[in-house]
Task: structure prediction
Amino acid sequence: MTKELEIVYDHIKEKSNEIYSSHEVNNYKELFEYFIEVMGYGVNYRHKGDCDECCSIQIEDRLFIQAYCYENEEKAIKTLTIACEKNGIEWGILLHHKCIALINSNIDTGDVAYKNNKVVFNIKYSRPKEKAFLKYFTYDNLIRKRNTCFFRDIIIYRNTQYSSGEKSWNAYLSGLRRFFDYIVDQYGAYEKDIYSRIKLSDLEDYIKKAGKVKSDKTVKNYFFYIKDFMIKTTKNDQFSCGAGTLCNMLKEETDKYAPCTVDIYKEKEKLKKLLRTVRKRKNASRNEILLLLILSFGMERSTLCKLQWKMSFRENSSGMMEILINDNWYVLPTALANRLKAAEKEKIQGANYVLGTRVTMCKKQLPEESISTILNTISDYDSSEEFYKRITVGTVRKNLLFYLLDQHYDLLSIMQMLEINPVNLSNYIDKNMIKSNNWHFKQEINKNVIHPMEQYINDIV
Result:
């Protein structure tokens, strides 16, 4: 994000909040004039009228800019969408005290809730990492070069053609946005034949420049996010190949990281040191519980976010605390159970969720990306220790599977506890691992007597 747009973002955020606090809708006129000037729209606009809760202007016959004093931004976005549809205006920008949003009234909607809106961007002030996309609100990108249409097309794809389910959509959305942000820099403008011109080598170059590719799995994720969109959007046959083609193209990059593989569970002393550091930092209780849940159960981010005190935990007939995973109840390691009990006693009124931030206050479900943000924060506690950066949900899940196999637990019961879909098992176990099989199962995981990580978790805590 350029320094100029950073200033624009901060100014709109500050002024929108001031106007909301004063409930003086007329004060938005000054903000409108500031916005259209700095975003390159010039001064030619039509005033479209005011009411007690909103005011609006129209630029050419293609854009409404509206401002609302509604407390709920969803209501404001819906009102803007209806106004654009009624007046035959394609684009709408919302200036609100909680967000800056962009809608396109020509987007078709789907049947399920998360596909039933026309929002291209909703840059919430509580999640400022998305503010880099403010550049797509400018006259240059929205009207002249039409680069914002790439991101409109992503929402059209979600609403009408995407089929992988709501749980995976945020990963697809993030991957598609980053890639097309790169494409804008490479191609300069959105044109009718733009998708037929995009090549697999563009994705290869993007991944290299992103500098985050460390394994074939990462490459495959990038590939599948982009491939599904491209196949359903264009007749371009560049993406009709398999993921292995792109993996081979990037083999030199992924090979650089092969020696860096770390088995987290073999580093007890480093984990002990990390937990000691966590206890001295901000959000100590939450962060320690998060780490212990991941290390004990290899929980996915979605499962962690959904944990609720009343729904996810119970005490069994032996007085041991249990957790509900994949329709099964599992006894918790004692050290983790003790920390959860202490946290439950200290929770504020109305806090139903186990994990939260200062935004959700454990009263609302945590967004999945917040788990990664928390883990990134923890990894920065000691920037000189590369090991801490390896503690991600994906790495822990894979390491835990093999740790439990080494303890002679049955593969199927491990898959059940880790909620591994059989179709995804190849993401954990490849052909080489099968050839060098040294695992001979002796026992299934006993869900109700003792957790298989009981001794390990006690040792590091």
Q: What stands out?
A: The longest helix spans residues 166-187. The longest strand covers residues 54-59.
